Queue: 4 jobs
Job 1
Amino acid sequence: MALAYYCANCILYFREADLTEGRCPDCGNQVKPRVVIGGVVLGAEEDANSDQ
Ligand SMILES: [Zn+2]
């Protein structure tokens, strides 16, 4: 199990090590932690449906 961090602004996932002070390294937006099991991101559908 691992965590990925989703930026709704960039529509990208980042690893914790890629974050800048806990935020998206590209745009500085807040990211949402997501659990990744076997390469599958849980809650990804929810992210895709989000307008933010
Ligand atoms: Zn971003």
Job 2
Amino acid sequence: MNTNTIQRELPINEILHGDCIEAMRRMPANTVDLIVTDPPYLVNYRDRDGRSIQNDVDASWLKPAMAEAYRVLKQDRVAVCFYGWSKVDKFFEAWKDAGFQPVGHLVFRKTYSSKSRFFRYQHEQAFLLAKGRPPLPKQPLGDVMDMPYSGNKLHPTQKPVSTLASLIRAFSLPGEIVLDAFAGSGSSCAAALLTGRKYIGIELNAEYHQAAVLRLNRVSGRIAKRSSPSFPRPVDDTCVPARLKANYCSAV
Ligand SMILES: C[S@@+](CC[C@H](N)C(=O)[O-])C[C@H]1O[C@@H](n2cnc3c(N)ncnc32)[C@H](O)[C@@H]1O
């Protein structure tokens, strides 16, 4: 099967509504170029407004989801997977069982704390996971990054697009396919589109799925406007100054 046929079978630039294990099972193996995903942290999270996250208590989905993520990722490529530090053992076992090799660990520094107990908890974290032997980036990012507050308007644990965009630029090329199997409000998908990549998002919760679909429609409308002759801004925003980039990503 050639690349065009495989791409036709993929839900390119779509946010699917449903269980990511089922959805990924329908995708051919070795087809996505990068995974950037933020699964439930297994902490039974509830925000001040009472919003919660499906599958945040029971880990039965974790191993099958990571096995499917590994299968659909191309050989010699990477996945960035956020995780909850208090359940690191469960995540690690699932990644290793799937076949992933941890090749980096990221700490995202927040200016606010999500909780205060033994510490004021002020960071998020993710592993960089390899399938095979991915090439090293020409200009590696630092593994401690700032994570501005997203505002959580669309989702209780909404990640900022600017941070995700840096990771997508570092580990994929324009035109490549980025998968987020736990898409929430579609932050990774928005970051993929804004950096000139294609996206595939999967979200179980109907309300967050709807929010993500509407958001991605807004983003693609904005990109279409931007690429019109009256608004000449590049689709891949590598040359947008950092100060402007932060504003322009946080607005979506
Ligand atoms: C931590 S949140 C992701 C938030 C996202 N990063 C954002 O910026 O909006 C995890 C999401 O995974 C979804 N989810 C949980 N189990 C799932 C499954 N089996 N398949 C697809 N999505 C799932 C939840 O509904 C939740 O929205």
Job 3
Amino acid sequence: MRWVLGAALVSTLVGAVGTSRRAGAHDGQPAALMFSNAAGVLGTATADGRVDMSNAFFADLGTNGRTCFTCHRPAQAWTITPAEVRDRFDRTGGLDPIFRANDGSNCAAADLSTVESRRRSFSALLNRGVIRVELDVPMGAEFEIVDVDDPYRCGAPLTSASMYRRPLPTANLSFLSGVMWDGRASKAGRAIEDDLIAQALDATEGHAQGVPPLPAQLREIVRFELGLVTAQMRDHGAGNLGAAGARGGTAPLSRQSFCIGINDPLGMRPPVPGACLAPTTTFDPVVFTLFGAWQDSHSPERQAIARGEALFNTRRFVIDNVPGLNGAVGDPVFGPIQSGTCTICHDTPNAGNHSVAMPLNIGIAAASRRGSDMPLYTLRNLWTGEVVQTMDPGRAMVTGRWRDIGKFKGPILRALAARPPYFHDGSAATLEDVVAFYDTRFNLRLTESEKADLVAFLRAL
Ligand code: HEC
Ligand code: HEC
């Protein structure tokens, strides 16, 4: 129980206002909150070493009982897992504020009359931990939605789409280059901090069905979020992830510097506040430098993590047909990238997200991957008549552009073990599933032991 300083706090903190906890020391690494998970222990460090429960992040600012904390949980790396959602359903008979029809249920019109009807109405949230994001097709879009094969038969008009997406963590945000899976909270030329203020406003009006909070409250939320740093601290097999020369855990991460475009393979420097000032340096594929010291460790588990890190950084494969990168006319790269690595897209040092806002279509929302619980939209290009099917049009619902269909941002890769399932739609239940996806998608031909090493590394982040 030594590692679980935060568990008691959080089980009692629902509704608690004004309490806070001092930081606990963990193997020399200060973290304000610690939680056990399947892989070991997760930590969160805050800007001042405390968690201020009086922050507006935890306050009921809307009308449906929800707070930011309803869907963004420290034990789950500041997102929420289906296990937590199911537990909450069982404890409350499906009446916890996360179970609201505005975006928690499969359809906006949901039968909430009995426990069993609620279980059916919230099945996507219960099974995948996804929230319904409903957006209208933008004005002037290059496409129209001509059909939807909807497993839930919501009956929504074809002028909008319901997309089922995982909440993103509200931690490690100082590494962001774009806000939301489809970047819709980011505006060209606007600082990430201001994007986050706009996001907090939307979240209060949308998720919590509230009136706009005071500007001071929005700033307070964003200051809090920006101070949160979360990472796995301890691994059941490898022990303290910051020991024997390794640099896992929250303390090294909170010292990691970042500017937008920091290690971009294409040398992009978008004209936004927070972009790197220094002239373009050459791309370094060695993005993660946390576990190199464990290469010669006497512990097999530590060695596996070090080998996984090296695979992530340097394993070569061909990257082709990725719209946004090299899959379509007008993309920045012409033709296949012959010696690609995971880090071509996951290029931010020791955080792993895309260091520039560059939504990509790696095929997660493709019709061929469809599970029976996801809608399938048919989109028609108004100018060419071309037709495409997708589970989630992604960035295209923000820009209205045909070429943006199926594009999503490359997310931060820290604290993964605490927050399955993965990808924007929760379609990869485990990190093994993530690795299997990439093995097939990019024809990596990993051996079973290489897959295990890669998973061990991802689990230690
Ligand atoms: C009902 C659940 C729910 C509630 C309540 C909620 N969020 Fe979220 N949050 C989500 C989902 C789902 C996404 C991802 C949506 C997308 O990208 O399309 C998200 C994304 C975010 C992101 C984007 C992070 C990134 O990496 O881009 C931030 C920041 C965030 N939420 C902050 C907040 C704040 C602040 C509040 C309270 C005002 C809040 N959320 C309330 C579900 C929720
Ligand atoms: C061509 C760009 C690209 C390459 C190469 C790439 N990724 Fe990704 N990665 C992405 C994008 C984009 C997403 C988000 C996709 C989505 O959810 O729709 C993602 C998502 C992920 C996630 C899920 C994170 C989460 O929060 O759900 C993991 C884990 C991951 N990638 C690991 C890897 C590994 C391991 C490799 C190398 C084998 C790799 N990626 C190679 C672009 C890439």
Job 4
Amino acid sequence: MRDARRRREIRDYYLGISPDEITSHLTPSSFDLWDSVARYRRELQIGARWLEIGGGMGDLAAAALDHGYDVLMTDIQAELLDTAAARHPRLRTRLRRADIFDARDVAALAAQGPFSIVAAVGAVLNHARDQSELAHGFDHLVALGEPSSLLVVDLMLSEMFPGHPASVWADFLHVLPGFGDLARLTRASGLHVLEAHSLYHRYPPTATFDREFDERMLRLFFHKRIPARPPRGAARSLVRESRRARPAPRRRVPSPASDPPGTRRAARRRSRA
Ligand SMILES: C[S@@+](CC[C@H](N)C(=O)[O-])C[C@H]1O[C@@H](n2cnc3c(N)ncnc32)[C@H](O)[C@@H]1O
């Protein structure tokens, strides 16, 4: 009985909307970091103080400056900060050495806050020693953001690699969390996932690994808000409101169960040298 009613509801809804609303084929499937950040800044009243963790050679931090952000960039490696300063001299006064897993470094950074946008892209958090350290690093990122702030975080997840390995590179210590770990971290911090995109890069064979290697990671945009969790009952009323505004979620296109034919997989750990 309930099934029959559900099917009737689905039929009535989809027969009542236009073809371009039913199809997911036309939904934009690419994203632009700057467009997304600018949109959330407008919609969520987010400021312009940009903190980048593990900024490496400074290219993103320099681009953030070009986009008008008030940038502070960090990295654990002093040599990389020197490289960033040489590549982008205008970053010179905006560079700090900090280890995102070190509570003292993070406290010193927080003293230079508050930060409206905290970015850790390029799998910085994967450089943790183990899952527990990764969770601390994630908490540190969240703590560095002001009460309404945007976090942009890239993570390589175990399930994105064949065999769900604990690590994929042979040449540095790192850890791959799973989707479950990510969900727990997200919920524990009361974060709202605004966007999640899959990044993909194919590395050519190297002297130490004789095959191409597919690297995948998720780029996540989170909103940190205070109060981090909605008051009791708020979630239900939110659904009722949105249903009034829009009748029901659109049909989802079934996701492929596996990689498309022809996708090659890395069969063993590879050195990134
Ligand atoms: C793959 S690179 C990405 C660089 C840059 N974010 C980008 O996307 O171009 C990872 C960076 O994380 C930095 N890193 C590694 N461990 C770190 C830590 N504990 N705290 C801060 N940065 C770290 C590395 O030095 C390196 O610059």
